[in-house]
């Protein structure tokens, strides 16, 4: 089943007096690129969250957001920088001795010195928290995958419709091709008669030689055949039950190559118009394929 690379999921769970919110969204990307924004206390669990995504997705830029709410949502710890305190006390005593100063070095004085205390967020690695976070993550990813599947179905229908339109232009080009040869022949005969100024019977052999030369230069039979084959391959790939975005992108590139060659060979106004319409459909197909996982 075709899947889009665009999706969104959100889940909330409660653990004691805490509420955990998990949001995940994805957009187009050539590969699977995952970024996370989680509280510092959960950085140790960051890779585990990424593994949940890697188990369900193969392409797309994925952003994961985790936040806490509630009492004591972030536990903190006050640390003493003993090395700094030791240096302060040593230097203060040096100053006393150097200048023969009196007085005691009090706790009040030391507590006001810079960098003595530091505040750190403690890692919250309780099993209860991990279980709740994974539960929320799984639920958010499930919603994301469901949205990508829904949009993928819409992409599938749209691409089928556009390929059908492209096929119709391809059929029109194929039907027009023999008419162009006859028109070549008639134009050459008319020009010969105009140059001779008389209604002479022109040399049919030479006319046919000229027609054959022009027809060979503008012959797009091989390109039309290959393009038809690409359309079949494209539709078969659409129905595969696996990520097919890269494969579809490659097929579309081959389609564009054939269409451009047909356009460069065409010296017939009607065929050129058909090629323009065909290119227009192919551009829309190319844009939509960029959204496929």
Structure commentary:
- The chain has 8 helices and 6 strands; from the N terminus they run E-E-E-H-E-E-H-H-E-H-H-H-H-H.
- It is elongated.
- Strand 3 (32-37), helix 1 and strand 4 form a beta-alpha-beta unit.
- It has helices at residues 46-54, 82-99, 107-111, 127-196, 204-217, 221-238, 245-265, 269-289; strands spanning 7-15, 18-27, 32-37, 60-70, 76-80, 117-121.
- 60% of the residues lie in helices and 16% in strands.
- The N and C termini lie close together (10 Å).
- It has 293 residues and is of the alpha+beta class.
Helix content: 55-70%
Rg calc: 36 Å
Q: Give the rounded overall mean pLDDT.
A: 84
Shape: elongated
Main sheet: strands, sense, barrel? 4 strands, mixed
Record field, number of beta strands: 6
Strand content: 15-25%
Helix segment tally: 8
Strand order of the largest sheet: 1-2-4-3
What sequence of helices (H) and strands (E) makes up the elements?
Answer: EEEHEEHHEHHHHH
Cofactor: a divalent metal cation
Pfam families: YicC-like_C, YicC-like_N
Keywords: Endonuclease, Hydrolase, Nuclease
Family: Belongs to the YicC/YloC family.
């Amino acid at each position: 089943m075709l899947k889009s690379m665009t999706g969104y999921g959100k889940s909330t769970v409660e653990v004691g007096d805490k509420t955990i919110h998990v949001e995940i969204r994805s957009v187009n990307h050539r590969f699977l690129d995952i970024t996370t924004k989680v509280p510092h206390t959960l950085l140790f669990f960051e890779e585990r969250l990424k593994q949940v995504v890697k188990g369900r997705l193969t392409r797309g830029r994925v952003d994961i957001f985790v936040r806490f709410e509630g009492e004591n949502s972030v536990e903190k710890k006050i640390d003493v920088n003993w090395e700094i305190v030791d240096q302060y006390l040593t230097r203060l005593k040096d100053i006393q001795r150097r200048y023969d100063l009196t007085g005691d070095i009090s706790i009040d004085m030391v507590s006001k010195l810079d960098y003595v205390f530091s505040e750190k967020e403690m890692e919250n690695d309780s099993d209860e928290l991990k279980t709740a976070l994974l539960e929320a993550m799984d639920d958010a990813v499930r919603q994301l995958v469901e949205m990508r599947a829904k949009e993928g179905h819409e992409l599938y229908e749209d691409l089928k419709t556009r390929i059908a339109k492209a096929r119709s232009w391809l059929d029109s080009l194929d039907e027009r091709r023999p008419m162009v040869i006859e028109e070549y022949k008639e134009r050459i005969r008319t020009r010969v008669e105009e140059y001779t100024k008389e209604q002479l019977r022109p040399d049919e052999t030479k006319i046919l030689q000229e027609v054959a030369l022009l027809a060979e230069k503008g012959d797009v039979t091989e390109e039309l055949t290959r393009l038809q084959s690409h359309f079949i391959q494209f539709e078969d790939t659409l129905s595969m039950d696996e990520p097919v975005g890269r494969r579809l992108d490659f097929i579309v590139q081959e389609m564009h190559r054939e269409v451009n060659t047909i356009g460069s060979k065409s010296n017939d106004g009607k065929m050129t118009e058909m090629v323009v319409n065909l290119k227009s459909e192919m551009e829309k197909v190319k844009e939509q394929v960029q959204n496929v996982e």
